[in-house]
């Protein structure tokens, strides 16, 4: 596939990415952190392979997709991007665990022991060790998936012994608020839940995936190690 870097299509992505990186740097500085400590995941769901390639050529290496089928359709055109990391950030039905283990480097939305066990078996067949995050349901939105905070200790204890699944940390999508300050408490809660899990299990869980285009600066201030940015990089989303 031909490169589109330098084309009219790539220019808005470059400008958006520069703004995001600047905001990341300012937020990290306020928190006494280095921006280099924070992984920027470009949420590429509904965007075409050409947009992903443009972002890759601008230096991004982590990309998030919501649906197994959508990424399967796009992945053939991007198979040469060998050093990219592909994250599944959407809810995964257990009957798609095998395909997800084939297609993704990391699955950031594990919410049950049964799903983790299916991913473990599928990853063993693929000859890989799949990095995973537990998705935590913060807030009272019934439409959101994720494990309840009270379920975390038992779920982590079920995942940690699995040989082909590597539990790396926690992820959450807090309730949306126009004012990002209104979600600060959720980001703080996720950090505290992660810290508590580390104490309980004696295992390091370095990843806190939290913060999106409208609230990632607050997430960084509260300890995010990964942020997930879609429209802030690619522009307004067009449903496929």
Name its key features.
TIM Barrel; globular; alpha/beta; 8 strands; 240 residues; 8-stranded parallel sheet; 17% strand; disordered N terminus; 40% helix
Report what the structure shows.
The structure is a single chain. The chain has a single domain, classed as Alpha-Beta Barrel (TIM Barrel), CATH 3.20.20.10. Mean pLDDT is 93; it is low at 1-8. The chain has helices at 10-30, 49-57, 68-75, 97-103, 113-126, 152-159, 184-201, 216-221, 231-234, and strands spanning 39-43, 62-65, 85-88, 106-110, 130-136, 165-172, 207-209, 226-229. The longest helix is centred in the first third of the chain and has 21 residues, at 10-30. The two termini are 20 Å apart. An 8-stranded parallel sheet has the order 7-6-5-4-3-2-1-8. The chain has 240 residues and is of the alpha/beta class.
What's the tally of helices?
A: 9
Widest β-sheet, arrangement of strands: 7-6-5-4-3-2-1-8
* Largest pleated sheet: 8 strands, parallel
- Total number of beta strands: 8
On the 0-100 scale, what is the average pLDDT?
93
The CATH superfamily label reads Alanine racemase
Radius of gyration from CA coordinates = 17 Å
């Amino acid at each position: 596939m031909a490169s589109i870097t330098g084309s009219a299509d790539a220019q808005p992505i470059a400008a958006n990415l520069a703004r995001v990186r600047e905001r990341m740097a300012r937020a990290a500085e306020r928190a006494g952190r280095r921006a280099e400590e924070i992984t920027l995941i470009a949420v590429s769901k509904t965007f075409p392979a050409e947009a992903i390639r443009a972002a890759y050529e601008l230096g991004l290496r982590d990309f998030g997709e919501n649906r197994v089928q959508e990424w399967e359709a796009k992945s053939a055109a991007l198979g040469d991007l060998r050093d990219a990391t592909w994250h599944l950030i959407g809810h995964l039905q257990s009957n798609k665990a095998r395909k997800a283990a084939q297609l993704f480097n990391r699955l950031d939305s594990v919410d049950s022991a049964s799903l983790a066990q299916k991913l473990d078996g599928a990853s063993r067949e693929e000859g890989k060790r799949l990095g995973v995050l537990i998705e935590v349901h913060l807030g009272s939105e019934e439409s959101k998936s994720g494990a309840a905070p009270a379920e975390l200790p038992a779920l982590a204890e079920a995942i940690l012994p699995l040989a082909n699944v590597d539990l790396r940390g926690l992820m959450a999508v807090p309730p949306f608020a126009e004012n990002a300050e209104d979600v600060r408490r959720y980001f703080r809660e996720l950090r505290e839940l992660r810290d508590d899990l580390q104490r309980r299990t004696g295992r390091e869980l370095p990843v806190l995936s939290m913060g999106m285009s409208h609230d990632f600066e607050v997430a960084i201030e509260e300890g995010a190690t990964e942020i997930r940015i879609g429209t802030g990089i690619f522009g307004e989303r067009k449903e496929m």
